Automatic annotation (TrEMBL):
Protein name: Uncharacterized protein
Basic and acidic residues: compositionally biased ranges: 1-10, 20-47
Alphabetic keyword roster: Coiled coil
Lineage top rank: taxon: Eukaryota
Coiled coil: 83-110
Stretches for region Disordered: 1-50
Species name: Trifolium medium
Length: 116
């Protein structure tokens, strides 16, 4: 009787849930766990860095970021000549494509007249 119970317990039970969905859920949980572990490791490294370098390093980084942000707002770049040429070529291609579309439309209309 005990042997029968153990044998029945070892048998695969049929369920209404898809095994594929269960595998996907398991994979999703594993990926989430790995992501959380990476996030915790990153936070640990950041906290160790702050402990080693102190808050002085953070003040320097934020002030540098403020300076960079201010500099970005004031500077206006002239586009590279290559970029300007590519933009002109793109505009020329677009107009040529429109002309080709118009020509194809005229040809199909004339073919329709010939076939009619």
């Amino acid at each position: 009787m005990m042997a029968e119970s153990i044998e029945r317990a070892n048998m695969k039970r049929l369920t209404l849930t898809s095994h594929f969905e269960m595998k996907q859920e398991k994979l999703r949980r594993e990926e989430e766990k790995k992501r959380q572990e990476k996030e915790e490791a990153r936070k640990k490294l950041v906290s160790e860095d702050v402990a080693v370098n102190g808050s002085e390093n953070m003040n320097v980084e934020t002030s540098d970021q403020v300076l960079l942000d201010k500099g970005k707002a004031a500077v206006v770049f002239d586009p590279d000549p290559l970029v300007l040429k590519l933009q002109e070529d793109l505009a020329a291609q677009k107009t040529e494509q429109e002309l080709l579309k118009e020509e194809v439309r005229h040809l199909t209309e004339s073919q329709n007249h010939v076939l009619s």
